[in-house]
């Protein structure tokens, strides 16, 4: 297993730690920072989530720079993104920071695209994430981070950036899902 794939796996391994820190009833107190007051566990969890999300850029950069792009990496990288984002979104519903219907739509899209990816792999195709999918992932990461950080900075000027970011993430999630299915409909036509 090459270094980029190990970095991707580290993203998956950080998910349980993130969930434990944010959901377990640790009493680490609260912190006021840049206009937002939040439990320390939310701050630590958000930072851990951001570090895990940043490994998405690191593994891709490393794989491209050193020509270590593999089919395993093309499959594992978006899967790690989906697992991280899905876990974080479920945490946000548990914390009552995000509406469950938005989270259901986002996670449903992720399962649908993953299912299509499996059908493509079965047919001998491995489709790497396209630019729209990358925008979707980063929009989700920004929204989740803003929500976990209690709308930090924007709370000072009373702009609900965290909520706006969640709507933007939903928009790009649905658009990229539609685009992915539209470009890969041949899988369904060939399965008759």
Order of helices and strands: HEEHHHHHH
User: Span from first to last CA?
Assistant: 37 Å
Total DSSP E strands: 2
Shape: globular
User: Biggest sheet, in brief?
Assistant: 2 strands, antiparallel
How large is the count of helical segments?
7
Description:
By secondary structure, the chain is mainly alpha-helical. Helix content is 73%, strand content 4%. It is built from seven helices and two strands, in the order αββαααααα. The chain has helices at residues 3-23, 40-65, 71-94, 100-122, 131-148, 161-183, 186-190; strands at 30-33, 36-39. A two-stranded antiparallel sheet has the order 1-2. Helix 1 (3-23) runs antiparallel to helix 2 and helix 3 packs parallel to helix 5. The mean pLDDT is 92.
Q: Can you give keywords for this protein?
A:
192 residues, mainly alpha, two-stranded antiparallel sheet, 2 strands, globular
Helices and strands, with pairings:
Layout: H1 3-23, E1 30-33, E2 36-39, H2 40-65, H3 71-94, H4 100-122, H5 131-148, H6 161-183, H7 186-190
Antiparallel strand pairs: 1-2
What's this model, at a glance?
The protein is mostly helical and 192 residues long. The chain has helices spanning 3-23, 40-65, 71-94, 100-122, 131-148, 161-183, 186-190, and strands at residues 30-33, 36-39.
């Amino acid at each position: 297993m090459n270094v980029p794939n190990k970095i991707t796996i580290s993203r998956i391994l950080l998910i349980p730690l993130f969930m434990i820190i944010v959901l377990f009833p640790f009493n680490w107190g609260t912190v006021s920072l840049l206009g937002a007051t939040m439990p320390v566990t939310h701050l630590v969890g958000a930072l851990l989530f951001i570090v895990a999300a940043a490994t998405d850029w690191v593994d891709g950069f490393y794989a491209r720079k050193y020509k270590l792009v593999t089919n395993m990496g093309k499959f594992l990288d978006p899967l790690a993104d989906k697992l991280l984002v899905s876990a974080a979104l479920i945490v946000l519903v548990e914390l009552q920071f995000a509406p469950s219907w938005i989270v259901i739509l986002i996670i449903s899209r992720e399962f649908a695209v993953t299912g299509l990816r499996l059908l493509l792999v079965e047919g001998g195709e491995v489709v790497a994430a396209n630019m729209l999918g990358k925008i979707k992932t980063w929009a989700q990461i920004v929204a989740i981070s803003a929500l976990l950080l209690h709308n930090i900075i924007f709370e000072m000027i009373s702009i609900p950036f965290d909520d706006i970011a969640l709507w933007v993430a939903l928009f790009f999630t649905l658009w990229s899902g539609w685009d992915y299915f539209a470009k890969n409909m041949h899988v369904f036509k060939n399965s008759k």
